[in-house]
Amino acid sequence: VGLAGYRAAGLTPAQLDVLQTPMHLSIYIEGVPDAEKPFQTVIDLYDRYWTTKQDLIKKAHGVVQWTPVIDLICDELTKIQSLSAPVAIIQDSPYWDDARKMGSAHVLLIDGKVCRFFHEGFFDYAFARRFVRRGQKLADFLVDSGEQDLFRRGQVRQVLTYLRARDRFRYLQELDALLKTAGIRTHILDLVYRWLGELPDPTPEELKMLPI
User: Fold this and answer.
1) How far apart are CA 188 and CA 196, in angstroms?
2) How far apart are CA 204 and CA 128, in angstroms?
3) Which of these, 146, 204, 209, 202, lies nearest to 178 by C-alpha position?
4) Distance between CA 43 and CA 63 in Å, rounded?
5) Which residues contact 73 (CB under 8 A, 6 or more apart)?
6) In this structure, are residues 92 and 55 in contact, taking their beta carbons and an 8 Å threshold?
7) What stretches of the chain adopt beta strand conformation (E)?
8) Most buried one in 6, 14, 20, 123, CB count within 10 A?
9) Which of 141, 124, 140, 132 is nearest to 42 (CA)?
């Protein structure tokens, strides 16, 4: 952090622990650290990165259709259950120029055949943010799609993480429904229980949901 030109002395042990992960350190620095808005979670880091990158692209290229591009790619990656998508989904859309601007800022990686986000962690965050914004329900998403294989595990974990950080009331509703809805596969439930068991600061409401 110091070598990047930012003040590290004010960071707490918990914040430094988060920044020990190289990707978290990278998005912290790229998100332009702000002493007036200290981060507490990785979600805070991605929020700051999200805003900072949009501002940088706007200054360099003008207004960019940031959210439509991200939604389009997220939808395709979710549908095909992959971390990269055919570049044609962007080339054949109204957002090709916008996507190339985002590529110049290293938010997207675009080559001759495929496009993807710069890191899997950003895809997880973008998916969760979009999922919550659209008002979708995790249990319905899993049951209605008919697909609950390994790719969905990361998405479930990230949506829960995002909601826990941003909307505790809805988070508890989603969590309760997820654990009680018929048709949720065992490996998804196991993931949720393990995730709950590993929380460093579980609340009484969360502890009640753990199996005895």
Assistant:
1) 12
2) 25
3) 209
4) 25
5) 85, 89, 90, 108, 115, 116, 117
6) no
7) 85-86, 108-110, 114-117
8) 123
9) 124
Q: 47-54: list long-range contacts, CB under 8 Å, 24+ apart.
A: 49/122, 50/129, 53/102, 53/105, 53/107
* Each residue's pLDDT expressed in tens, for the chain with a length of 212 residues: 888 887 777 788 888 888 999 989 988 888 766 655 678 888 999 998 999 899 999 999 998 999 999 999 999 999 999 999 999 999 999 999 999 999 999 999 998 899 999 999 999 999 999 999 999 899 998 887 777 777 888 899 999 999 999 999 999 999 999 999 998 999 999 999 999 999 988 999 999 988 86
Query: Mapping DSSP to helix (H, G, I), strand (E, B) and coil, where does residue 169 land?
Result: helix
pTM: 0.88
Q: Residue 55: what residue type?
A: D
Two structure tokens written together for 49: 């990165």
* Structure tokens given for 61: 């290229």
- Pull the structure tokens for residue 68: 């439509």
In terms of C-beta density within 10 A (0-12 exposed, 13-18 middle, 19 or more buried), how is residue 152 classed? buried
Q: Quick one: tokens of 145?
A: 């799609």
